[in-house]
Amino acid sequence: MTQTIPPRPEATIPPVAWGALTHPGQVRSVNEDGVFSAPDKGLWAVADGMGGHVGGAEAAALIVRALAGVPHLRALDAALDGVDRAVTGAGRDIAALAARSPGAVIGATMVALVIRGRDWGCLWAGDSRAYRLRGGRLEQLTRDHSEVNDLLAAGVITPAEAKTWPRRNVISRAVGVSDPLVLDRVGGVLEPGDVFVLCSDGLMKHVTDAEIATLLAAHPQAGAAAGALIDLTLERGAQDNVTVVVVAAPGIGTGTGPGTGPGNAPAGEARA
């Protein structure tokens, strides 16, 4: 799914509140997720590595390092293109890593959010997701690139069958695996009070969309909201690594500035 984002004049980055947390979960000893927060660039991202302890973690780390090199581009479309190029380059590095490990399938899913002025845009590959809470309604902005979702879209299986489909965890697109890599895009205009959530699939395995909406409403500070989502996942067993980024547009909570100001958690903070 690719949505055309109309170009606008060069825009500044509005002050936002944000929080970012990652945790290895209750079962796995290694965290193969990666998180990136650069409020000065108006850029946040989550990467979920796959390929075993070392391979998955390195794949996610390669995406994070690539995003760190994205320059501050003022126009939204230019910034999205910059993220796309960086992730595509990371995909080549991940493929090279896999080539040095015969038989290994190494890759990562990812989702990124870019904010410029009144506009926002997301890019993604795989089943890492972006949500938006607006006016009390939670909307999934991304569409999972997964076998089960492809079958649902084609009408081959029903939503009820999808919940127990034996290959529901199979990803149909990932960085470092798909060649050529195509990152889908979606975007729109910010409204006061918009709250965005980026997450790895470790969150969705234990927390429903309705619960995400409830926790965001109950915790208006971005850092507290991210912590509440992580905590609920841990309470329910956290079978996988879990990463959550919450970004709140002006008009919500007490945090009004970028970075680690009031209502925010430091980027990449990990809870044990």
Explain the overall architecture.
The chain is built from seven helices and eleven strands. With 272 residues, the chain is an alpha+beta fold. The protein has a single domain (17-270), classed as PPM-type phosphatase domain (Phosphatase 2c, domain 1). The strands form two sheets. A six-stranded mixed sheet has the order 7-6-9-10-1-11. A hairpin with a 2-residue loop joins strand 4 and strand 5. Helix 6 packs across helix 7 (222-235). The longest helix has 24 residues, at 76-99. The chain is globular. Residues 252-272 have low confidence and may be disordered.
Give me some keywords for this one:
272 residues; alpha+beta; Phosphatase 2c, domain 1; six-stranded mixed beta sheet; five-stranded antiparallel beta sheet; globular; disordered C terminus
